[in-house]
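Escalation from tier 1.

The customer reports that the assembly of two entities below gives different structure tokens on two consecutive runs. Tier 1 could not reproduce it. I'm attaching the input and our single run for tier 2 to review.
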Amino acid sequence: MTNLPKTTFYETIFYRLRRGKDEAKRMMEKRKFRLGVFKYTCCAGCEFQLIYFQKHILEIFQNLEIVYFQMGDSNGKEEGPFDIVLIDGAITQAEQADQLKKVRQAAKFLLPIGSCAVNGGIPAIKNSTSELEIEQRVYQQIAPIHSMKAHPIDEYVRVDGCIKGCPMGEADLVEAVTSLLIGKQPNFFNYSVCVECKLKGNLCVLVAYKEPCMGPVTNAGCGALCPSYGRPCYACWGPMEDANAPALAQLFEKIGLSPDDIYRKFTQYGSPKSEFRKGAELYGSKT
Amino acid sequence: MYTDAFLIEKDQFSPWLEVLHQEFRLIGPIEENGFYTFAEIQSVRDLALNYDTTMLGPRKFIYHPEEKICAFRKTPEGFEIEPLGKAAPQILVGVHSCDLHAILVLDKVFLKKGFQDRNYRMWREATVIMGIHCTGVCPNCFCASMGTGPLFEPKEGYDFLLTDFGDRYLIELLGERAEKFILPLKLQRATESDFKKKQEIGRKVENQFKKKIDTTHLVDIILRNQNHPVWKRTAEELCLGCTNCTMVCPTCFCYNQKDEIGFDLIHYERKRYWDSCQELHFAQVHGGNFRFTRMARLRQFVTHKLATWVEQFGCFGCIGCGRCMTWCPTGIDLTEIAKEIMVTEQNKTIRMSEAQQFENG
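Tier 1 run:
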């Protein structure tokens, strides 16, 4: 894992002051926001979701100028500069990391979109098995493969917020883009799925039916989609900050889940994140 | 205030509600997938007045989980605000004694202490409340210990109060609004013996409680033991930080606000939704977070309900409905926490008296 120095408090303050000035200038000029969308290791579902969302939020896209978006437009300018960059997918190759760092330098705001970019997501399931074994299972010739463990974006560069979800949630995306357009701090969902369930008045599937629901440790934003239909949450939004995964993992054991099942539950969507790793490590080990 | 009491046959009761239903939204307990829940009722037949408990109390129809507070619009000079939302007249049927007390607690928070909350007042005034006395206890409730049941004693907070006598209800009235509703029925007035019967039912229920808590020195004991090991142990081993306890608590009143930005970047809407002290960002202020650990958050919930609420509003924040422990995925029980602290206190006094005896020879 790359350990980059974290930004200090004063750096953040300077950054915000500078941002405020830039914002005022942009507003005066009525210039469009320059948008870049980059894709790394993922299924590209989030990018399709973005293309799909513009049906609803066409007004928002009127304020945006697409500078680089390979899925939507083949004549992009990769070097920027950008106002907003959305990053889709996890980092699994050294050259992806190199490009990501360059993009960060050319971008004013950089936001990872979707579980892969935010938490490692589905690609990070392979992190619990050794690289060679994984590669041999998929490819006959492993010589041209330069893959490494899957990492979320924020392990390589500073991010200005996360748009979670698998695929990314519309509410968070709209909040992020509109907030950046008017120059305010985006107000992301930062509580558990349980809150959304209670706000909707759903019966708790974990307590009432003893279903292994990941809701208590999962970040909200989906509108409690699965529990609303009586299904247990499977944590596609990734971990909530300061989630108590070990306590939930032990509860799953009491409900009757096997150690393997519990391990898979906590490594399916956010295995690089320490919140989930704590729960997974009680019931399995990393090779 | 006008008070009166009548007897109403059960055959007469449903048609009467049916008539009221034409004018009002009718809200009451219904059965859904084997569990009871408060919901808007389509037909009076769905009403399950013999329900035990619900996950969310009737508070969600007065103090809504999510509601729009105001809309504002950017103008060249600044911005214009317009308040949003109108209350629809509604009847809450079948509110248990604990939940009636919970509504009184919310009244203290939103209406009586200094600032009046516009939306809460609007919905509170538009709501006719019909309480009902429990005829049994739930596995987790302890209202008798908190002084909030099983019979509802205060002469405020409700319009009608029902007591089940088998084939008929004793219906107590409070206020002129209630009188107006019941006038066309021409009912038989309740007598002294009916009230005795009601007291008897109350006594019968009171003897069934399994969960109890001694509240005599509770406030002092909790405040003295803020560093007791029980807090840390429960927070680390059991508490998920999922906020279920505060979401289902009928007296929790915290909310958070969120601005929804219109796509044209000119129109905005301000929404409020239930917030929870069990959530990490609740205590996030400029310069840091003053309840950074899960232990501090769990301790805040229990201490507020059982101790500091008394100083703040003059009553306990806990009304003994037992929802927080029923709907906690890991079953954290605030009475067990309080009891563990009390046991340590008792041992301490015993040890101290023993030491004194030893000194005295």
